[in-house]
Amino acid sequence: MIKILFSLVSFLILAPAIYAGTGPAMAPLGEVPEPADNRTTPAKAELGKLLFFDPRLGGDKSTSCAECHSPNMGWQDNQPICRGYPGTEHWRNCQTIMNSAYYAKLFWEGNATSLEGQAHAAASGAVAGNGEDDMMEERLAQVTEYVKRFKDVFGTERPQLEDAWKAIAAFERTLVQKDTPFDRYLKGDKGALTPQQQKGLALFAGKGRCLECHNGPLLSDQKYYNLGVPENDVFMESPLHQITFRFEQYAKGVPEEVYRKTKTDLGLYYQTKDRADMGKFRTPSLRYLKYTAPYMHNGTFFDLAEVVDFYDRGGGEDAVRKAFGHGTKSEKMKPLGLAAEEKMDLIAFLESMSGGEIKMETPVLPKDDILRIGRQNGKPEKQRR
Amino acid sequence: MNRLHLSFAALFLHILTSCSPSPEPQEDERSAKLLALDTLPALEVDIKKAALGKELFFDPRLSGDGAISCATCHNPKKGWGDGQALSRAYPGSEYFRNSKTLLNAAHARYFFWDGRLSGKDGETLVRDHITETHFMNLDGRLMMERLKQVPEYERMFRETMGGEPSFGRTLKAVAEFQKTIVSKNVPFDRYVQGDSAAISTDAKVGLRLFQGKARCVQCHNGPYFSDANPHNLGLPENPAIVNESMRHITLRSFFKFMGVDNFENLREDAGFYAVSKREEDRKAFLTPTLRELKWTAPYMHNGTLADLDAVIAFYDAGGGKAENKDPLLRPLRLSKKEKRSLKAFLLALSGDEVKAEAPEPKPYRVIENWTEVAN
């Protein structure tokens, strides 16, 4: 109801500027959606916070969620390509956890349908966490503090790995920044945006055509597009990146012809295996972007000026057409003809969507316990032989 | 009857019959066993394939985070085990059993202390070690792509395996290398082949004890000196499998994977029970070979016996205590001198140290013409 009211208010105030696009209106970020089977409680989110920082949920206990989604680096890792598991490099830019609760699907190709699923996939993938389920679950069961917390939150006698992902997702649903100048402006505080930012807003919705995809409260239509983003040169220069690039083609199950041929990330295609989806990536939210450089799925642009210049050119060359003969680049990508000053205005506006940086100290993690013979979790136990 | 040819189905029968009151093996059975102690047959080895396997054996890029190679826990300088009571494991975990020597392992009927893999399938043994979370924890698909990033490997695979580096070809090559890790110049083998001076008089006395009073041959028989059967010796647990949390975690995670009931509360090594799920097999382990034991201390599945004297003393006492202890074990009442002779014989089962040096590291190379070549 409140959300509808906000939308209505924003419509009345901003209608001329904002409805140049065709998608849903920009709006303040509403309440965090929660799945029916995983309601957030303070105790659950607190457990999830510990687990988010705990390297037990990974292969060699070196790589917690927070290693690549660091609270001090915009809840991602500020690298063009994510650092990945030891002995590897990842192949895509690491996305921020901040406001990720609002996405219907996670990852650049939308391969996880929930935060719970994303957490499991990231903790298990060979170039991410490389953890194995049985081992991770037993590591949790070795910690009396966790056994107690899982029982309090989920009612189980011992930690279930499924519930670890639920707790982490609940924690991530608390990582929201909606106190931004942009949100305040939409709610009616005209002074929340500077005159320059207001000019930027008009460009965003008008000449800059950003709103065609970056719309709705999240500033993402959650659809997939090929923009012709240039390749990241690191794939030409680094053996570890070349290894991971091929590994991903192999692991994602493409036909051998595609595995042998492609040197460009095929994005959504790995999910659908539809050649029309080659090279398409999910529109990311623009919120919190002040803290999440570098940008794009392969981190190829270091700052917003490079991003705006890229769109102003109408995007880049279609690598899919070059390699496979059929183009998939979005027809929305056309030269914009922005003046230098307009670009500055646009960037000033983009930064109004970030709000203050939300940092967090690494919590003190509970230690392993020794589960002595004859005792289980502090209670006497019937001993087998 | 040569126990090497006992099937697992016959194992039941064997346990039943060994429960019978007959105190000593019959004379003809004993001489059959005497004959069964023999040299190991030579293995056919593809030298080039094994040479590639050797490279891979020493390459830490066959583990998930690139920290450990096969040679970390099967170190040629430590008798192809790791010299620890309990093996180390993949970083972030520790193991709950002793690392078995690879010396002559290619001759084993079954692999692992619990015999869960067939000895005919060296490739599966290698696969299990590369991919298992507590061993090397590597995704086989990532392994393949790592190897393709090493030009020397690319060339060696094409020359010796008929194609580019792949998971299956890697398993074949390493398994082939394992076939080269075999005894050399073993005094006992020379003795069997007719050189009566190859072992000392003391060792000859030890051989008679081995086959007679000391009863070793009842389980340690055949050319491999193992009946390939599980036995519970009543060996005390190594407390570290519970008192060191990382070992206990690995233990539970393993038995969960093996489908063992009540793994949550396991505070002991369930042994062959994990394979058979029969109560009588709880804490039973497959008889290991005695060959090359000079190089492979400490002993037993949990490394709790530090040296051969401790092992002999353990058997002399009739083993340890357990409900389902193998009735083959009974006090031996060996004299000090007999123990010395037995030890002399046991040491005669070890030959020259089988050495291997780690090959020169072969670094990853960037593929310079990345956009022009096929993946």
Q: What can you tell me about this protein's structure?
A:
The complex is a heterodimer of chains A (385) and B (375). Chain A is built from 16 helices and 4 strands. Chain A is an all-alpha fold and 385 residues long. In chain A, strands 1-2 form a two-stranded antiparallel ribbon. A two-stranded antiparallel ribbon of chain A has the order 3-4. Chain A is globular. Helix content of chain B is 36%, strand content 2%. Chain B contains 15 helices and 4 strands. In chain B, strand 1 (110-111) and strand 2 (117-118) form a beta hairpin. Chain B is globular, with a radius of gyration of 22 Å.
Give a nutshell description of this structure.
The complex is a heterodimer of chains A (385) and B (375). Chain A has 385 residues and is an all-alpha fold. Chain A contains 16 helices and 4 strands.
Strand count, sense and barrel status of the largest sheet of chain B are: 2 strands, antiparallel
Reading the helices and strands of chain B in chain order gives: HHHHEEHHHHHHEHHHEHH
Distance between the termini of chain B: 56 Å
Mean pLDDT of chain A: 92
What's the total number of strands of chain B? Answer: 4
Which outline of chain B best applies?
Answer: globular
Mean pLDDT figure of chain B:
91
Widest beta sheet: strand line-up of chain B: 1-2
Instruction: Provide a count of the helices of chain B.
Output: 15
Multimer state: heterodimer
Taken from the alpha-carbon principal axes, the silhouette of chain A is globular
